Amino acid sequence: MKLFYAVFVLGLLASSPSALGTPAQQADLIVYGDYLLTMDPAQPRLHDAAVVVQGDIIVAIGTRAEIERNWRAQVTLDGEGRVLMPGLVNGHTHSAMTLFRGMVDDLDLMTWLNAYVFPMEGRFVTPEFVRVGAELACWEMIRGGTTTFVDMYFYPDEIAAVVERCGLRAVVGAPHIDFPSPGFQGWEDSFAAADDFVRRWQGRHPRITPAFAPHAPYTVSPQHLQATVARAAARGAPISMHLAEAPAESEYVQEQFSTSPVQHVAGLGMYDAALIAAHMVQLDAADIALTAAAGIGAIHNPTSNMKLGAGIAPVSAMLAAGVNVGLGTDGAASNNDLDLWEEVRMAALLHKVASGDPTALPAGQALAMATRLGAAAIRKGDEIGQLKVGMQADMIQLDVSQTRHLPLYDVESHLVYVLDSNDVQTTVVAGRILMRDRKVLTIDESSLRAQVTAVSDRIRGALASQQENAS
User: Fold this and answer.
1) Do 300 and 326 form a contact (C-beta atoms < 8 A)?
2) What is the distance between the alpha carbons of residues 378 and 363, in angstroms, rounded to a whole number?
3) Contact at 8 Å (CB) between 137 and 166?
4) How far is residue 85's CA from residue 40's CA, in Å, rounded to a whole number?
5) pLDDT per position as a tens digit, 343-356
6) Model confidence over 420-435: pLDDT tens digits?
7) Is the CB of residue 301 less than 8 Å from the CB of residue 277?
8) Domains of the chain, first to last
9) At what angle do helices 187-201 and 156-166 cross, to 10 degrees?
10) SS3 for 326?
11) pLDDT for residue 241 is more than 90
């Protein structure tokens, strides 16, 4: 009996560093979850577990017992009834276009752009418009569990400043186009401004990556796309661009250059660059093989593509070929929200009905597109998209405790087919809590609402005047 007692006591001492005189390590933040979904293929999920954060880095992952035995933190977030997982990656959007949400709907891409969007942008887009619209977008994304986004819109300094204040992570693309656009006469001044933006923001803030953002192959000439490639290479900066988005683009490129959009830009050197290609709807087998071989990141925007009648991207074929395919919302003017959970579910369902195969794009793969694969597609796979020691502490908690969530058999299936953005309870980026218990902590919602109302009232008046003139 004495021997048994001695062995029992030694076992307790061995399991408790503090009992042996070794104090628990101090951290800044510990986040718990009844379910911990890492999106790390080597360690996909844990139950009743936690992530430990020091500064902006994950320093430990383990079961509750392991973490509480070895760590203490200034702040802890309870995980009862919650799923803890990486934050979502929105690979393509136009943040400030939240202010054009619902402005005009149910049109094809070119009519939508040329008859409404481009004219309204010319009339209303100013630095103030972009600041307010970007802040509205960031509020929406924080609420929905998006922690990183890739943006392409005018006045990128305003967008970057909003991102810096609100705490999100972003690749901020500075647009350049061959035609007059808000603040610019055409290619020369817009490209010069984009280059200056990239130069000034490179290395300026750890959560902000500046990028070049030529609009598309049908709005930027071959020589100008080549200039973008050369300057991006000189700066060591990524490029974000719409590519193979719709039939009208493919018809234009075929007519002008006798090839496909992918083959066209690849021939100009863009496939040798750090390219993030948005949409990628109009691809054939040769395009997919070229995209895979070049390591180009493709961003699938299912809701926007469906709404504009642009077609269905060959996502399953791209994934099978080894392309890193992420998800994007596109802008709120063509979606009409920035809810990436909606894109996850839409992607999973769309490719089942398109192929007639209910096993196409299963839940786990769709979820990977919004996290691990999406991070790789935007060339940040070594920083975000998984919960692993040494990576950035970007994570979210989702509530699965409500009656409507019952029963829960498979956590990945539940996340894709049951939960939505309203179930996100906590958003953390770089170790900073941006939302807790559904309350966004880094943006003043009441002030934001007042500013959005002021801008939208002016747009509403312009639309009414346009309709009167048309009649």
Assistant:
1) yes
2) 21
3) no
4) 10
5) 999 999 999 999 99
6) 999 999 999 999 999 9
7) no
8) 1-87+387-440 (2.30.40.10), 88-384 (3.20.20.140)
9) 30
10) strand
11) yes
For residue 219 the two structure tokens come to 């709005």
DSSP secondary structure code for residue 385 in this structure: S
The model's pTM: 0.93
- Above 70 in pLDDT, residue 102? yes
**What does the alpha-carbon distance between residue 58 and residue 360 come to, in Å, rounded to a whole number?**
33
Q: At what angle do helices 340-355 and 127-144 cross, to 10 degrees?
A: 70
Cα angle for residues 131, 135, 137 (degrees, 5° grid): 120
Which pLDDT band holds residue 112 (cuts at 50, 70, 90)? confident
Output the furthest CA–CA distance in the chain (Å, rounded): 98
Burial tier of 442 (Cβ tally within 10 Å: 0-12, 13-18, 19+)? middle
Phi–psi pair at 348, nearest 5 degrees: -60, -40
**Residue 298, strand partner residues:** 277, 325
- Planar angle of CA 326, 331, 337, nearest 5 degrees: 90
Place of tokens 């050197």: 269
- With beta carbons less than 8 A apart as the criterion, state whether 242 and 216 touch: yes
Q: What are the structure tokens assigned to 348, written together?
A: 């999973």
Integer angstrom CA distances of residue 385 from 7, 359, 380 = 44, 24, 8
Look over the chain and give the mean of its residue pLDDT values, rounded to a whole number: 93
Is omega for the bond preceding 336 within 30 degrees of 0, making it cis?
A: yes
CA dihedral 302, 303, 309, 313 (to 10 degrees): 0
Dist CA 399 CA 420 (whole Å)? 10
CA 462 to CA 124: how far, in whole Å? Answer: 10
Q: How far from 96 is each of 123, 228, 457, CA to CA, in Å?
A: 14, 24, 16
Q: From CA 471, how far away is CA 453, in angstroms rounded?
A: 27
Give the tokens for residue 86.
């990486």
Contact 258, 269 (CB under 8 A): no
